[in-house]
Write a structure and sequence with these properties.
about 150 residues; mainly alpha; 1 helix; rod-shaped
């Protein structure tokens, strides 16, 4: 009888050990699972970070592009302003030349007019002289006739 009880006890013990072994296995598995999840979480965090970084870089690239565009625009406006200034200057120059041309024309006309007056004055002087000469001649003839009569 004692033997049997001893066997029973041993059987119980083996059962208990088996159970404990099973439990340790289960815990080991669970530990492994937790480790796996931890790793996956880490990986997700890493990917999240990288995604954030890519987004940041994208934004910065966009910003650089925008600034480039704006710089180009400012350059364009600068050039256009320069062009307008140049045209303005040229217009001023043309106006100046026009004015000077007008003045030269005026002076030319004035010169012509003076020349004409000079010629006319000369002509009058000449006529006057001729008239004087005719008068002189007339008087001379008159005197001659008078002398003849006497």
């Amino acid at each position: 009888m004692k033997m049997r009880e001893k066997e029973k006890k041993e059987e119980k013990m083996r059962e208990k050990e088996k159970k404990e072994e099973k439990m340790r296995e289960k815990e080991k598995k669970e530990e492994k699972m937790r480790e796996k999840e931890k790793k996956e979480e880490k990986m997700r965090e890493k990917e999240k970070k990288e995604e954030k970084m890519r987004e940041k870089e994208k934004k910065e690239e966009k910003m650089r592009e925008k600034e480039k565009k704006e710089e180009k625009m400012r350059e364009k406006e600068k050039k256009e302003e320069k062009m307008r200034e140049k045209e303005k200057k040229e217009e001023k120059m043309r106006e100046k030349e026009k004015k000077e041309e007008k003045i030269r024309e005026k002076e030319k006309k004035e010169e012509k007019r003076r020349e004409k007056e000079k010629r006319e004055e000369k002509m009058r002087e000449k006529e006057k002289k001729e008239e004087k000469m005719r008068e002189k001649e007339k008087k001379k003839r008159k005197r001659k006739r008078r002398r003849k009569r006497k």
